[in-house]
Amino acid sequence: MNIQERAKAPTPKFFKVLRTIGLSLLAVSGSLLAAPIALPAAVVTAAGYVAVAGGVISAVSQVTVEDSKAKKEQGP
Question: What's the CA gap between 68 and 73, in Å, rounded?
Answer without folding.
Answer: 9
